[in-house]
Amino acid sequence: MKHLYLVLIVLFVATSCKTYLSKITEVEVGEVPQQVEDVFIENPEGIQVEVWQENLVIPWSLVFLPDGSALVSQRTGSIIYIKDGDMQNQPYAVMPDIRQKHGTEGGLMGLAVHPDFENQPYVYAKYTFDDGEEFDNRVVRFRHAGNRGIFDKVILKGMPAANNHNGGRIKFGPDGMLYIATGEIFDRSLPQDMNSLGGKFLRVKPDGDIPPDNPFPDSPIYTLGHRNAQGIAWHPETGDLFSSEHGPSGEMLITGNDIINIIYPGKNYGWPRVVGQMNYPEFEDPIIMWSNATPPSGMDFWNGDLYVATLRSRTLIRIELEKDSNSDDYSILNIERWFSAKRNEGTYGRLRDVVVGPDNALYVLTSNRDGRGSPQEGDDKILRITKK
Fold first, then answer.
1. What three-state secondary structure class fits 173?
2. Which of 63, 134, 348, 382 could in theory staple to 53 by disulfide, Cβ–Cβ 3.0 to 4.6 A?
3. Residue 195: its pLDDT value, please?
C-alpha cells in the first residue's frame, strides 16, 4: 500500500531576526477506505422538506424532551425552548461567562437530555467558558423547570478551549453514560497526551463521576488521537458508536480528509501521526474518508441509514451501510449527497446538525450566519424532512 508522506518545515524568526529551521513534522495520509463514489442528488425522490423554525442565530444542537417539546442551542449563548412548534420569547437558559466570537467555533455547542428525564429532569450543555481567570470548555447541567432551565452544577471542566477546534458534541449513550467530543484547539501535541482532555472522546456518569469500566483507570478519557470530532450516533441495531471528524484544513500542507469513525473504548485514532486507512495495529482506521473538504458535523441514524450534516460541502449525506456477519467491519454500500448538484453548492447552505424527532421526521439545522456561510432569507433555520 502506498502512503503519502507529507513534510511541513516550520520556520520561526528568533529575536535576533535570524530565521532558523525549527522542526520537521510528518503525517502519513492513508488510502480512502470506502469503495464507492459519492452521488450528488439535488432533489431526492420521495422526500419532502419544510421550514420548521427560522430566524435562529447560529443553531448548533437540537434535542427533544419526552413531552415532544424541543431545545436548540445558539452558539451565542442561549438555549431556545420550542413548545407545540412555537419558539418561546424568553430563553430557556443563558450560559454564564461564555466566550463566543463571530466567525470562530467556540461558544455554546452541544446539548443532551438525561436518559431518565422523568426522574432526573436535567438538560446538559457544553460551552466555552471564560471569566477572566478560567478559560476552558465545560459541560454544565440545568434542572428543567417548565419553560426554563435552572443552573444546577458543572459536570466536567478543564477541556482545552480556543477560537477553533473545540469539538462540542455531547450525547447520552445506550449505557446511560454521557459521551463528550473534544477538539485539539490546533495544538497537535494534545491528542496523544493522556494528561490533556483535548482531542479525545470522554465518557462520564450523568453526575460527572468517572465510570469504573472506562478503559483508562480514574480517567474520563474513552479514546484518543482525535483532531476535531463533531458528530455522535449509535447504530440502532448493532449499538456501535459512530463519529464524524474534521480532517486537516491546511496545517502540515494537508486539506480535506474528513472522516467517519467507529469508536471503540481505549483505541487510538492516530491524529496527528496518521489520517486515513493505514492498517497499523496501533491506530484505528476510519470507515469513510473524503479527500475533498466536506467537514461533517452532527449525525443520526434514520430508517437504518446514517445521515450526516456537512458544512463546507453544504449537503446532507446519506450513508447506506451494513455490518459484515463474520467480523466487526462494515461495508459501505452507497453514499448520497442530498440537496446539491455539485461539490460545495447546496440548496440550504451549511448544515450543522441532524436529529431524528419523536415523530420520526428528520430535523436539520442550518449554519449560515456563523461568518462562514451565505445567509438566506429566514436563516438560520431548522428544516423538517419527511418521506412522502
1. coil
2. 382
3. 98
Residues 6 or more apart in contact with residue 133 via CB below 8 angstroms: none
Label the pairing between strands 382-387 and 362-366.
Answer: antiparallel
Q: What angle do CA 266, 268, 269 make, to 5 degrees?
A: 130
- In this prediction, residues 84-89 reach a mean pLDDT of 96
Other CB atoms within a 10 A radius of the CB of residue 1 amount to 7
With cut-offs at 50, 70 and 90, classify the pLDDT of residue 325: confident
The dihedral over CA atoms of 196, 177, 236, 144, expressed in degrees to the nearest 10, equals: -110
% of the chain at pLDDT higher than 90:
89
Cis peptide before 375 (omega within 30 of 0): no
SS3 80: strand
Q: Give me the phi and psi of 226, to 5 degrees please.
A: -105, 150
Query: Residue 161's closest CA among 125, 127, 194, 204?
Result: 127
Residue ranges of domains in the chain:
39-56+295-388
Q: What is the DSSP letter of 253?
A: G
Q: What is the dihedral of CA 364, 369, 370, 374, to 10 degrees?
A: 90
If one counts every other C-beta atom within 10 angstroms of the C-beta of residue 125, the result is 27
Going through 45-107 in order, the beta strands assigned E by DSSP cover 47-53, 59-64, 70-74, 78-83, 86-87, 93-94
- Which residues, listed in sequence order, are joined to residue 20 by a DSSP beta bridge? 12
Q: Distance between CA atoms of 281 and 337, rounded to whole angstroms?
A: 32
CA distance 352 to 57: 12
Return the ∠ at Cα 43 (arms to 37 and 49), rounded to 5°.
120
Q: How far apart are the first and last CA of the chain?
A: 45
Beta strand 351-356 pairing with 362-366: antiparallel
pTM over 0.90: yes
Tell me the three state secondary structure of residue 252: helix
Report the C-alpha gap between 59 and 380 in whole angstroms.
7
Cβ proximity of 243 and 258 under 8 Å: no
Average pLDDT over residues 82-87: 97
What does the alpha-carbon distance between residue 276 and residue 290 come to, in Å, rounded to a whole number?
9
- The cell for 262 is 467507529
Backbone angles phi, psi at 251, to 5 degrees: -65, 145
Strands 122-130 and 4-13: unpaired
User: C-alpha cell of 103?
Assistant: 466567525
